[in-house]
Design goal:
The chain has 105 residues and is an alpha+beta fold. The chain is 25% helix and 27% strand. Strands 3, 4, 5 and 6 form a four-stranded antiparallel β-sheet that branches.
């Protein structure tokens, strides 16, 4: 329902999908099960949206088929945040970690 409304509002008459249709969700699917999460992501994919998700690590395996990359943010000692970028391969069987993927922010 939300995806349909957004697509209707963001799409020009001559286009099938929005030219720019990013959706940002904080704590995305935190309380949802894997099945609901997959169903929701399928809907957003079908409507042509670019998803930006802040989500707990427990959902990464469920979300992997729907995202091209992740950036993991941690701050274990509350001193400095650490970022680690992971890009999922196109053939979906390999994960590529770029050189210097972990940096301090």
């Amino acid at each position: 329902c939300l995806a349909a409304a957004l697509r209707y509002q963001l799409t020009e008459e001559e286009d099938d999908v929005p030219r720019f249709g990013s959706i940002v969700l904080d704590e995305a699917f935190d309380k949802a099960d894997s099945r609901y999460t997959r169903n929701a992501m399928e809907v957003f994919r079908e409507f042509g949206f670019h998803m930006i998700l802040a989500t707990p690590q427990k959902l990464l395996q469920t979300l992997e088929p729907y995202v091209g990359a992740i950036t993991s943010v941690s701050n274990p000692d509350r001193d400095a945040s650490r970022l680690a970028n992971v890009v999922f391969s196109v053939d979906e069987t390999e994960v590529a970690v770029p050189p210097h993927a972990e940096s301090r922010a």
